[in-house]
Amino acid sequence: MKIWRDLAFSGLLIRLNGESWAASDAQQPLVASTGRKPNIVFILSDDQDLHMDSLSYMPFLKQHLTDYGTTFNRHYCTNALCCPSRVSLWTGKAAHNTNVTDVNPPYGGYPKFASQGFNSAYLPIWLQEAGYNTYYVGKLFNAQTVDNYHSPHAAGWTGSDFLLDPYTYEYLNATFQRNHDHPVSYEGRYSADVIAEKAYGFLEGGLRSAAQKPFFLVIAPTAPHSNVHINDNLIDGNFTEKSVIQSPPVSAERHKHLFADAKVPRTKHFNPKEPHGVSWISRLPEQNETNIDFNDHFYRSRLRALQSVDEMIDSVVSRLQEAGALENTFIFYTTDNGYHIGQHRLQPGKQCAFEEDINVPLVVRGPGIPEGLASDIVTSHTDLAPTLMRLAGTALRDDFDGTSIPLTAPELQEAVETRQEHVNVEMWGIIMSEGKYGSVLYPNHTYKALRLVGQDYSYLYTMWCSGEHELYDLVTDPYETHNLLAHDTSNLTTFALPYIHSAEAQAPLNLPTTTFSTAHTPNNTTFNPPLIHLLPRLDTLLMLLKTCKARQCTHPWEILHPAGDVRNLHDALRAEYDDFYERQQQRVEFSRCEKGYIKESEGPEGVVVWRGVDEIGVRGGGRWEHLV
């Protein structure tokens, strides 16, 4: 009989089937009672949205994973682009530490991954060292081609069958390369079905040897990515509008009739009357009905392409169950990045810092994981490698930029109070939409962004290489339609950050200065600190995160306040820190826009560290030192 679990994280107790029990008594193992290391199946879709309801069209995902596992509502990619996101996922490192920031050379793709040394330092190698057989089917990285797949071969896999460019995204003309064999074309066959067959073969092999060695299997179909015809085997530094031909994703013949009436959800920010955002986004035209009709067709095509992925989930779970291995197997479902269609007037695509692009699905099922739970703790793709290492029972690396994701009920309850609240988001280079309309190449799509989520606040703060800024309060503005830093807003008549740190900052600021409590928050009211105090805190946090490494990335408040008395934005907003944040810190800025990560073009770096009040004990008379 199915067991439903309802975890009430707002209190001290967790409810299970209507009965209360103390979290301290709820220690659940992460592995089955056999004591064997668990198997891990990792299903990675491509460009799948969370905010356009794609999961609602996947009944097997719900039946097998959502209902029997935990959904992480606030899971984020840290770079909303395929290859950089996947490299971060498999290395546990932020893109500024992998220096893989694009899908093609010279700034990204498989050649960049290999040249940076990660072919000998990423997850499958570490799992093999932990005693696992490792298998991969589908898309590994962009720019892994029919010409360079052996230069070098992707290391760390007991068995592999990779999709290769220039045919990776051609649903009916895919080329695969198995182990160290030569590439094989599957022209005329539906690529997701080919991936399924290959995945089941590796799964059977893993199950046969599971008593001696556990297995890690990655299944990475290209659905629901657009269908892409790449005109060159390798695009190396010369990408133009003519480099590729993009069209809606293709479904299997058996799914072509589905969802005939489905449309992109008509949310408040869908094709708005007034433009949103900054930079090139703020200049997008309103879409006409012909454009919208095509984009609805594009949306339906995505949903249809996902049906083959949903069928894979059903088949994988059925095979694990038949083999008696399901209870000792963790199953992860996620995607590399999110997607937008029509929101903020955007044509189909990704790469933005808006919630559609960075907030992505993550569902986990396995031994000890609560069933039917939706958690709101903040997690990111850099947390997945540490999580998988922990499940494998091996020590975590001290250079991870992420932390292991809490999976058991007591861990999840504790994480409500202790888990980090931030995600560092970054992007470089160019962007081009994937639809029929507006497939224009936009340069200077380089930015640093901070996503900060607390129990009573939720912000997106973005600094573009052009010098433009965005700040959205998602508590009051969940669709990110009102930039609090727009020059014509009534509550901000002078933009704060560029001059708070300048000589002119000694003059009174033309910003809201309502007298608040010592935490700059009115008693018994909604959290709403004045921008004059909020912005410097957010900017300082982003300054630290944009070049962070290891613990700087996972515990930034601890780095800024080593005494441990600041753990979140609420703590940082105490008035005693006003001078520390508002006048002593450098500000995030770029010296120029680049197509990739060039450190010298990304402005100043380093933050000032708080070292406590001075000997006299005067409020605001703190001591600090500079941290590079």
Your description of this structure?
The protein has helices spanning 59-66, 82-91, 95-98, 109-115, 123-129, 191-208, 289-322, 355-358, 384-391, 409-418, 497-500, 531-545, 551-554, 556-560, 569-572, 578-582, and strands at residues 5-6, 13-16, 19-22, 39-45, 70-76, 133-138, 159-163, 173-178, 184-187, 215-220, 227-230, 244-247, 329-335, 362-365, 373-380, 422-427, 431-432, 441-442, 447-453, 458-464, 469-473, 607-613, 622-627. The protein is of the alpha+beta class. The protein folds into two domains: 41-420, Alkaline Phosphatase, subunit A, CATH 3.40.720; 456-627, no CATH class. It has a ten-stranded mixed beta sheet, sandwiched between helices. Helix 1 crosses helix 7 (289-322) and helix 6 (191-208) runs parallel beside helix 7 (289-322).
Summarize this structure as a short list of keywords or feature phrases:
single chain; 628 residues; alpha+beta; Alkaline Phosphatase, subunit A; ten-stranded mixed β-sheet; four-stranded antiparallel β-sheet; 23 strands; 23% helix; globular; disordered N terminus
CATH superfamily of the largest domain: Alkaline Phosphatase, subunit A
| Percent range for β-strand residues | 15-25%
The tally of helices reads 16
What value does the Rg take, in angstroms? 24 Å
The strand line-up of the biggest sheet is 9-8-7-6-10-4-13-14-5-15
The portion of residues assigned to helices is: 10-25%
CATH topology of the largest domain: Alkaline Phosphatase, subunit A
Organism: Friedmanniomyces endolithicus
Catalytic activity: an aryl sulfate + H2O = a phenol + sulfate + H(+)
Domain Sulfatase N-terminal: 38-393
EC number: 3.1.6.1
